[in-house]
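User: Structure please.
Assistant: Input sequence and predicted structure:
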Amino acid sequence: MANQGYFPSSEADRTAWLAHFRTKLPVHCVDLGFSLDDIASTLADIDFYIWLLQSWNPSIQKNALEASAFKALIGTGSGSELVALPVHVVFDPEPVPVLPGVLTRLFNLVQRIKTAATYNLVVGKDLGIIGTVSVDTHVIPEFTVITERGMVGERVKMMFTKYSHDGVIVESRRGDGEWEFLGVVVTKPWYDERDLLVANVPEIREYRLRWWDKGIANGEYTAVQRVNIGP
């Protein structure tokens, strides 16, 4: 599982973070462009995962310890009375099970939240999704994008600062399309010289960056920057 700067490392802290996020998500989801129906599955994921952390896993571990102790007692213990089998916990009711990948879906949702047009630092702090410093004091890359004339038309010029990192990965989105991985960039400036989706029709291009170190993308995405590029 990739490291997320905002997500605690201990299970106790993770439980507290999940409970907080679960409370705050319905407050902000509509303003961020998500419907309550969109969020319902996330809340179910969180409920099930919290139950696993708080109830199921500790009980299973306790059962295993009791089973080992009982086996040892029967095997090499002593006594003049029969010993009853350990009684295992029965969960009633059990939460609705969910598909594997709870944390992966949650982290993907957080990234979608951070690219929403209405997302801001206040919302991020309230949700608890502002990451901590990991590699150095620069949590996310700093970059600018402008348009300029190239050899065969307009192109996008990107400038960025690597600080102590190896480089950045660049992702872009056009129109209603999905985010596209454009490459790993280690030198500046970098140019986006792709053809327009529709010839001679201007388009909006969006960009976001993450750090790239030792062959692995890491850290949080930057805020999205947009440019209008024409023929």
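The two ends are 42 Å apart (CA to CA).
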